[in-house]
Amino acid sequence: MKNYFVGIDISKDTLDVCVMSENDEKEIFFKVENSVEGVEKMISTNVRKDSQLRYCFENTGNYGLLLAKILENHNLPYYQIPALEIKLSQGIQRGKNDKVDSWRIARYAKVHCHELTLHALPEKEILMIKNLLTYRNHLIKIRTQFKNEKQSFYQINKIADVSYQIDEITEHIKRLDKNIDLVEKRIQQEIDKQQQISTNYKKITKVKGVGMLTAAYMIVLTNNFTSFQNPRKFNCYAGLAPFEHSSGTSIKGKTKTSKLRNKRIKTVLFNGANSAVIYDEELKSYYKRKKEEGKAHNSIINAVCCKLVYRMFAVVKREEPFVNLVRYNLHMS
């Protein structure tokens, strides 16, 4: 049975497709609409009785959801790869268009097929939580813009009357505050709908420094703690794990985290860690000790983030809730 690799470059309206064989036969290129009819047409075009087809496309967010869902409905295997991973694997590139991109994706799948893991869509509830978090992010950005604009108008108001604009902006901010509260309530409702998600949510929010938003992001990004084998791998993904920077005897740089990271979850975890070192006795003691050793604040908080991730993964894997050992020991004594 022959293997064929189908590289798909996704855009809002169309899918550019390249079919590449494992035996270096001539590639096939075509374009279909990014719709139910278009995806079904692509699948029917690629059907070969004596072959195994593997579909591959970049993680493009919502534009690739329909494609993934239809492939799953047909029980067809597919890989969903971060765009940066494909780009970095190609080396120096000259020229770019949708047809070339589909060829590069197919080639990536062909070269790396033995290392890739087949993708599967998360549960509907997790998709709902993810999109609500994205919408909340959007509202937060708009509110921040209005707040900055309001401060600017306060300065103008010192020399000219712009009270009308200030009042209008104030009303916009109030409405956004209300909308953000409603979105957060919807997130909580979606979490409560599914038992396993709700169970894990309750476990990880027992960890000090892990609030509703941190827990929601962790559930979405780990696919309810099933996508990462261990917390170390998640810390690498989030840009929390430090890596050595040295070469021979001449280069001995500082150990530092990678710039290839999920910036959103790192920010959320940093906020939680800053709270944890105030309210968690063990982490407060750890922070104080490291500070006395001369460590920088951000370096210590980064380490606290790693500890929070380890704690969350630990409580999910066991039945008992999180126990603060410092408080437990004080109570026993």
Automatic annotation (TrEMBL):
Keyword Aminoacyl-tRNA synthetase on entry: no
Domain Transposase IS110-like N-terminal: 6-150
UniProt keywords, alphabetically: Coiled coil
Chain ranges of the Transposase IS116/IS110/IS902 C-terminal domain: 203-288
One of the record's GO molecular function terms: transposase activity
InterPro entries associated with the record: Transp_IS110-like_N (IPR002525), Transpos_IS110 (IPR047650), Transposase_20 (IPR003346)
Coiled coil: 166-193
One Pfam family named in its UniProt record: DEDD_Tnp_IS110
Keyword Membrane: no
Name of this protein: Transposase
Domain of life: Bacteria
Example GO biological process: DNA transposition
